[in-house]
Specification:
Largest sheet: 3 strands, antiparallel
Distance between the termini: 136 Å
Strand order of the largest sheet: 3-2-6
Order of helices and strands: HHHEEEHEEEEHHHHHH
Radius of gyration: 88 Å
Shape: rod-shaped
Helix content: 55-70%
Strand content: under 5%
Number of strands: 7
Number of helices: 10
């Protein structure tokens, strides 16, 4: 509770007091409580300011309350009352042990004592006065102290107010001061009463009660003030910490803002990069979708081709089975041809040996004929000559070209069989290459082409063998009897060779080496 809140209460308790006087009393009480709290003592020392403020307060109270009253001063038992006049320039000096009784009178005069020019009435309890010859009034102690100070400085006694020389000589010639002591000047109790008003004791009790209540209020307000001050200090500390925290947070906010700005720029750049990547991925996706569609079409095409190849493969498998049957028959044919070739080789050797024998016999006959023509004189007896030439005359003459023709026939037959063997080796090689490429469409087409080539080779071999056999000249009838049997044998061999029929295979029947099957 502040002064504004308790001022109505103070105005009620002290209705004759001004607001400035109440404000002064409030300030004095607060100052005293603060001093007591700082010193740790409940009574605390009174300061000069507090004493001056108290005296000013008392003067204002007396002035405002008793300006129109009279003071009755009692100077002792049986003495007449002296009515001093209360002046605003000289308030009544009141001690701490004095008791004032206030009563209202119809006419009251108050005599105010003069003010000591030396001490200015600092000591209110001092009532011993002296008067100088110049008529000025001073405290006795103050004047004695003044005279001692003047003597110490080597001066003469003089009036502190008008500097009048106060030195005098008595009858004995001694130096003395012209000071007159005022007697029967005593401090008495003054009672000033007012009709219809409470006695000073009652008013003082009420004021004390009010003062105690005010003190309670002040103490309570002081406690609140202390708590408020403590809270204020705490709030100030918190304010300082909050200010430091705010500074740190402001700095962090600034740093975070810079980070956010940089991060925003990075995110914007990253967004642009992502958009470019997304566009590139979209193009890549479209390209992949197109490739997927093309791959699907290609896959469908491959499936169609695969089905066609499966059909072709099944067809080729049937043809292969057919070719294997033909191969078995061709194997038997080849075996027969090989046996016939071996038989022909043996017969050729026999023919060669017969031809050699015929050549030798022919040479012998020629030599004998030449000998007969050269020396006919050696034959004395015509009978012997006839007998020796009997064979010559009986058989036809042997032509010299006939053996050569037989040799040529044999050589041509041998060359034909050698070519047949070479063709057989070529067929075997083609079959091996065909087996390596078996299983694909190209291999099947190559197999068909190879089958055609094999058939062509076989037909060519047959044609060349027939032509060779037909082109062989038939030997003429021998003229000699000894070689008739050899000529007949050669003719029989020729007819046998002519009677041999080469196998005519279809174009799709391949020739397979029989040794491949054991």
């Amino acid at each position: 509770m502040m002064f504004k809140e308790i001022s109505p209460c103070l105005n009620t308790v002290f209705p004759n007091f001004e607001r400035s006087l109440l404000t002064l009393a409030w300030g004095l009480q607060k100052q005293r409580e603060v001093r007591q709290w700082e010193s740790g003592s409940p009574d605390g020392p009174n300061s000069a300011a507090e004493t001056g403020i108290g005296q000013t307060l008392l003067n204002k109270i007396l002035k405002n309350t008793y300006s129109s009253t009279r003071v009755c001063t009692v100077q002792g038992p049986g003495s007449e009352p002296t009515i001093p006049r209360l002046s605003s320039n000289r308030p009544i000096a009141l001690g701490q042990t004095d008791l004032f009784c206030l009563r209202v009178m119809s006419a009251t005069k108050v005599i105010v004592l003069p003010t000591c020019a030396i001490c200015r009435d600092d000591d209110d309890d001092e009532v011993s006065y002296v008067v100088t010859k110049c008529g000025h009034l001073f405290h006795t102690n103050c004047m004695e102290e003044w005279n001692r100070n003047e003597q110490n400085r080597g001066g003469r006694p003089r009036c502190p107010y008008c500097n009048t020389n106060l030195q005098a000589y008595d009858a004995h010639g001694c130096c003395s001061t012209n000071l007159i002591r005022l007697h029967q000047l005593m401090m008495h109790r003054v009672m000033i009463l007012e009709d219809g008003k409470p006695t000073p004791e009652e008013e003082l009790k009420g004021v004390r009660d009010n003062l105690n209540s005010i003190k309670v209020i002040l103490n309570r307000e002081t406690d609140k003030l202390r708590s408020t001050q403590a809270e204020k200090d705490k709030l100030e500390e918190e304010n300082k910490s909050l200010k430091s925290t705010i500074g740190k947070l402001t700095h962090e906010v600034k740093l975070n803002k810079e980070k956010v700005d940089s991060r925003t720029v990075d995110l914007r750049n990253e967004k642009l990069n992502r958009q470019r990547d997304l566009a590139a991925h979209s193009e890549e996706k479209q390209r992949l979708l197109k490739q997927t569609a093309d791959a699907k079409q290609h896959c469908q095409k491959l499936k169609t081709e695969r089905s066609e190849l499966h059909k072709e493969l099944s067809k080729k498998k049937g043809e292969n089975a057919k070719l294997q049957g033909i191969m078995a028959s061709q194997t038997n044919l080849v075996s027969t041809l090989q046996a016939q070739s071996m038989q022909l080789n043996r017969e050729r050797e026999e023919l060669v040996s017969n031809v050699n024998a015929l050549r030798q016999s022919n040479q012998a006959l020629l030599s004998q004929t030449q000998a007969a023509h050269i020396s006919p004189q050696r034959h004395f007896n015509p009978v012997q000559a006839i007998q020796s030439n009997q064979l010559y005359y009986r058989g036809p003459t042997v032509e010299p070209a006939q053996p050569n023709q037989l040799v040529d026939i044999l050589q041509s037959l041998s060359g034909g069989f050698l070519k047949l063997e070479k063709e057989y080796m070529g067929i075997k090689k083609l079959l091996e290459e065909k087996n390596e490429r078996d299983g694909s469409k190209t291999d099947l087409e190559d197999s068909g082409n190879e089958s055609i080539e094999i058939q062509a080779h076989v037909e060519a071999i047959g044609d060349r063998s027939v032509v060779a056999i037909q082109a062989t000249p038939t030997p003429s009838e021998p003229h000699l009897d000894p070689i008739t049997s050899g000529a007949s044998e050669m003719q029989g061999l020729v007819h046998r060779m002519e009677g041999l029929e080469l196998p005519s295979t279809p174009a799709t029947a391949p020739m397979i080496d029989p040794r491949l099957f054991g």
